Amino acid sequence: MKIALDVMGGDYAPVELLAGAMKWLQESEGQIILVGDQEIINEELQNHSYNPNRLEIVHASQVIGMDESPAAALRKKKDASIVVASRLVKDGMADAVVSCGSTGAQMAAAIFILGRMEGIERPPIVAAIPGRGGKPTLLIDVGANVDCRPIQLLQFALLGQAYARGVMNLDNPRVGLLNNGEEEGKGNNLSIQTYELLSGQSGLNFIGNVEGRDLFSSRCDVIVCDGFTGNILLKTLEGMVFFLAAGVKEELGAIPATFTRLDYTQIGGAPLLGVNGISVVCHGSSKREAVCNGLNIAADSINNNIVDKQLQELSRLTP
What pLDDT is stored for residue 119 in this prediction? Predict the structure, then answer.
């Protein structure tokens, strides 16, 4: 197993990303390709002890910033770290790419370099939300696509189902549509039309509409929504966790361990589905622990052959 890590993307690059890579190497048996400015990487590596046989550096002279247009930057910066790292996966030199840089740039690189799976219009990002008893609920999409059509949400549902089967080992994952009510016919036009598509899809265990409060329940395994809604929901949860943790610490003097399961700075990353390769999107403010966890998510996706399982799921798409 070999994972390409874009060490130039993110708020704490390259120091925390390299520290996360070192932590992962200590805890796993895989190999890492560090992609970025070779001089900077070599200088920072002097602060670490590592097995050189498990570490490789691939030079990339450019970085795509958070404020740059992804498509335009991809055309202009052919030697950007996320481009080089994605190309390593495309060429079979790496099994996955992990980045904490621009989500838009990573998605563009995945689409134009790795390529979309047949039948997929818009690759979504899936996030695992911790639930009761350690059982997570998958939320898809959480930010890759802000404007969606019903057929795209159907594709998200199939991809989420494939991920639930492949990584969470669920035989028949339950899929729900995020809405403002449980009743059929609720919601905006997108929700109503998507409900009809999901209901008519054979092989999809669609249980109907679910509400935001069901995210932490055991009612379903995969919750589908557009990326605009999903991203707002995810970031609302992030803010709520910090608010509650601060309040609990003020009253009790300590923060319960449960809160760490919802701390986005520790969770790691979320896979971009629907592309012909494994690309894990990490939070821009990820530090070493989150980077290490992001690499673990990539490793799980590799070990579970998640690309092949998505293709198998899509082959069941009802015309």
Answer: 87
End-to-end CA distance of the chain: 37
- As assigned by CATH, the class of the 1-118+274-304 domain is alpha beta
Give whole-number Cα distances, 175 to 14, 109, 199, in Å.
38, 29, 11
Token reading at 242: 């910090």
Kindly list the distances between the CA atom of residue 283 and the CA atoms of 99, 142, 220, in Å, as whole numbers in the listed order: 9, 12, 25
- Nearest by Cα to 117 from 247, 8, 273: 273
* Per-residue pLDDT reduced to its tens digit, 247-275: 888 888 887 777 766 666 667 788 999 99
* pLDDT band, residue 172 (cuts 50/70/90): very high
d(CA 293, CA 297): 6
SS3 content of the chain, % helix, strand, coil (to 5): 45, 15, 35
The predicted structure's pLDDT at residue 135? 82
In this structure, CATH architecture of domain 121-267: 3-Layer(aba) Sandwich (3.40)
Strand 222-224 relative to strand 269-272, pairing: unpaired
User: What is the arithmetic mean of pLDDT over 19-46?
Assistant: 96
